[in-house]
Amino acid sequence: MFHVEHGKVYYVAMAATNQLLTLEQFHEQFDGKKPYYEFRRGAAIQKSMPTRLHSLLQRLLVELLEKAGYEAGQEIELRVNDEWHPVPDVIAHGAIEDPYPTKPVDVVVEILSPSDKATDLLEKCTDYQELGIRAIFVLDPLQKTGWRWTAGSLVMIADLQLPNGSNLPLLTVWQEMDARNKR
Fold first, then answer.
1. Radius of gyration, alpha carbons of the chain
2. H or E segment to which residue 157 belongs
3. What is this structure's pTM?
4. Which residue in 25, 109, 128, 151 could disulfide with 90, CB within 3.0 to 4.6 Å?
5. 101, 91 in Cβ contact below 8 A?
6. Beta-bridge mates of residue 43
7. Burial class (CB within 10 angstroms; exposed 0-12, middle 13-18, buried 19+) of 89
């Protein structure tokens, strides 16, 4: 039996006892099922529902990151740590492991959705840093703003400065997003 509390799903062994999910229980109950969930320290955490603009920005970022010399993908589960299996909106690395990355990737991009909570986002960024992700970005397609996670905080940026030395100006990203959105 499962219990939902503050958007997290816990396994309930007895009527009033919340237990953490095992990784195996998580995969049995949530793998490939919608809405999508991430495994985080024994809880199944529902991902925000992406909008059309969110999806459009994901595709665009994958293309731009590939042009910048990375292999990139969207919604790929990271299995770097047994306590947390995040599913970032976009990842990029020299070569992405198949079927899931088990080592830190170079770049993670989270795209804000209207239902995202700031506390959840900050926890995610902290955890990405602890996993060893080199560049952690957060983009807001509605406000057309971006941040980089640096030294434990989000810093507003004008460009995605990538670990391989490439630079993607956000103005270019927003202009291309708008052009594609009008089609």
1. 17
2. strand 153-157
3. 0.85
4. 109
5. yes
6. 40
7. buried
- 137 class by beta-carbon count within 10 Å (0-12 exposed, 13-18 middle, 19+ buried): buried
Q: Give 122: exposed, middle or buried? Use CB within 10 Å, 0-12, 13-18, 19+.
A: middle
**Two tokens, residue 96:** 């992405």
The amino acid occupying position 133 is I
The per-residue pLDDT for range 21-62, each reduced to its tens digit, is 888 898 888 887 777 888 888 888 888 888 899 999 999 999
69, 71, 78, 131 from 63: Cα distances, Å: 10, 9, 20, 25
Query: Which amino acid makes up residue 181?
Result: N
Task: Enumerate residues 6+ apart whose C-beta is below 8 A from 12.
Answer: 1, 2, 3, 18, 19
Q: Are 10 and 42 in contact (CB under 8 A)?
A: yes
CB atoms within 10 A of CB 107: 23
What's the pLDDT tens digit per position in 74-120?
999 999 998 888 999 999 999 999 999 999 999 999 999 888 889 88
| Residue 99 token pair | 């079927």
Q: How far is CA 149 from the centre of its chain?
A: 13
Q: Could you give the CA distance from residue 24 to residue 15 in angstroms, rounded to a whole number?
A: 22
